[in-house]
Automatic annotation (TrEMBL):
<feature type="repeat" description="TPR">
    <location>
        <begin position="579"/>
        <end position="612"/>
    </location>
</feature>
<dbReference type="Pfam" id="PF13432">
    <property type="entry name" value="TPR_16"/>
</dbReference>
<dbReference type="InterPro" id="IPR036514">
    <property type="entry name" value="SGNH_hydro_sf"/>
</dbReference>
<protein>
    <submittedName>
        <fullName>O-GlcNAc transferase</fullName>
    </submittedName>
</protein>
<dbReference type="InterPro" id="IPR011990">
    <property type="entry name" value="TPR-like_helical_dom_sf"/>
</dbReference>
<dbReference type="GO" id="GO:0016740">
    <property type="term" value="F:transferase activity"/>
</dbReference>
<keyword id="KW-0802">TPR repeat</keyword>
<dbReference type="InterPro" id="IPR050498">
    <property type="entry name" value="Ycf3"/>
</dbReference>
<feature type="repeat" description="TPR">
    <location>
        <begin position="613"/>
        <end position="646"/>
    </location>
</feature>
<keyword id="KW-0472">Membrane</keyword>
<keyword id="KW-0808">Transferase</keyword>
<feature type="transmembrane region" description="Helical">
    <location>
        <begin position="24"/>
        <end position="45"/>
    </location>
</feature>
<keyword id="KW-0812">Transmembrane</keyword>
<keyword id="KW-1133">Transmembrane helix</keyword>
<feature type="repeat" description="TPR">
    <location>
        <begin position="545"/>
        <end position="578"/>
    </location>
</feature>
<dbReference type="InterPro" id="IPR019734">
    <property type="entry name" value="TPR_rpt"/>
</dbReference>
<keyword id="KW-0677">Repeat</keyword>
Amino acid sequence: MLGDEVASQHTVARRRLLPTWKKAAFGLLTSCLLLAALEGLLALLGTEPLTVEHDPLVGFSSSSPLFVPSSDSDGELATAQAKLAFFNRQQFPRQKSSDTRRIICLGGSTTYGRPYDDVTSFVGWLRQLLPHADPRYQWEVINAGGISYASYRLAVLTEQLLELDPDLLIIYTGHNEFLEERTYPRSQRPSWMLQQATLLAARSRIFTLIYRGLHGDPAAGSQRVILPEEVDEILNHTVGPSSYQRDDFQQDQVIRHFQLNLSRISRMARRRGVPLLMVTPAANLRDFSPFKSQFSEAVSAADRKQWQLHIDKARLLQIEEDWQAARQQLEAARQLDPRQATTHFQLGHLLLKQGESAAALAAFRRARDEDVCPLRALSPVVESVRQAARREGDLLVDFEQLLAEQAQQTQGHRIPGNELFLDHVHPSIDAQQLLAEAIIDRLGKASWLSLAASWTPELRQQVSLELKQSLDRLDHARARRNLAKVLNWAGKHMEAGQLATSVLDDLPRDPESLSIASAYMRQLGRLPQAIELMRRRLAETPADLDSLRRLGSLLVDNGQAQQALEPYQQVVKLAPRDAASQHHLGILLLELGELDQALLALTAARQLEPSDANIHYHLGIVLARRGELSKAAASLRRALQLNPDDEDARYNLDVLQQKLRSGQP
């Protein structure tokens, strides 16, 4: 008995000596098991995490379905009429047959097929290729790509599309995240760890249940930004990218929102048992300069001037093909402001000329990522797609890497350019086909489909030939013309000019393409070609005032002042009440020594626009050359009253006053 008592005392002692950390660990483990069990129970009961059913940052003023019952055919759905400004026209049965596989492709304008349409998008290619790749099924491939649609709009659209019983969703997104104005709270900005903890909690069903108990409907009373039902781009309210300013906080929040939307889309699909395939967005790195470069705030005015000197010197040295000296100038410019996108873009081209393709690729990527108007998916956006696919267990086609490999094969480096893109982000028809084939191969590797033995390069080439032969070449040329106009409006004159020049192969008399191509040749210093293109433009639209002015200016720049007289006189004949036209004619007549006619034109210009200092200045010069010194001095004095900083007017007035005082003629 005594031994038992002693043993019992030892047992009690051992229990009392159990370390505190072990007790805490056992308690934590028990709590985790209970929470996991509760989370699982809520999942069985159908409770969805807050992030799946609710976007905490963005809402919409209204929402209408993309596909509605067709007015042409019973039992079919078609794209709603109100949506056709953003989406392709699609039509398909409401109920799919038992041997049909339905694929719905979401995204922005690349999915849409811009600058063309659905037929040459990767969606259209899938529609043509899948029956050959796996002929066991009937294939329905639906294009739900919306022009300018960003991920937060696609998340809402996904909820609709999952009701259509798809067998697979494919999403290509990332380029449009900065197109619309959105604001995020800046006060009391949470730390990165707190943001991650909050996001993790919002993915929990327990958190969702507690939140509902405290707040009710998650959308009610929230401080979400309310956007219109359809896209309202920032660029619609400005000329080019001028409204965009560097905002690192905003950029960071947009990327986090993008990551949240990818997770929401993935989990909505998984909840419905629908596989999801993500595609990384790819962009034209080599042949498309940044939309907007901007100095860092800390860069002084003196350093900005020095930066410009380095850039100008580098340009001249490259003309002389002194690559190393040009590189030193660009490196010096980069040191002054590492965030100037233009520097990185020019340095990328120089490094490529020197055979340093890896360094060139890094420079081109940095140029894209420092673009203040980020209309190409930034590096963190592209990487977010990769991470989302890994994290959520979704399929992935790395289109960015695919095009890098294609560039390596055809260009000898991994930097894609105009051989794969039509502009900054829209792939060529061949690149769209390449993406479709990569998607099919990925689905085959995942055993989602079974590739037929006949699925060979020769078969794919035959399908490609048949599709391309069916295209309307003129329609495609007009689409490229429209794209050139957009690029020109956005300030991308060189890129627009290259595109417009190619359009003229198919539309040699297209007025807008002729104008853009002429301006492009002028930028290149090819004045005879620019003049010839502008004459062709005027042959189509003889009374176009802007074209007449441009032709006159080109002829003057090319040393053909006498020939320039005709278009300038034609402008005045068509618009006699336009002061600028009278002014330009007067200047040209002055250069030609036709002083009487110049006086008439400039006098008319002064009557039409008496507050224009330059008109008074040129009128003073004409009067002086005619020997009317007093009148000339009065005109120059008026020019200085209107523009006190005009040094030429001040100098010429001083000369005239000296002559008047000395009595010289």
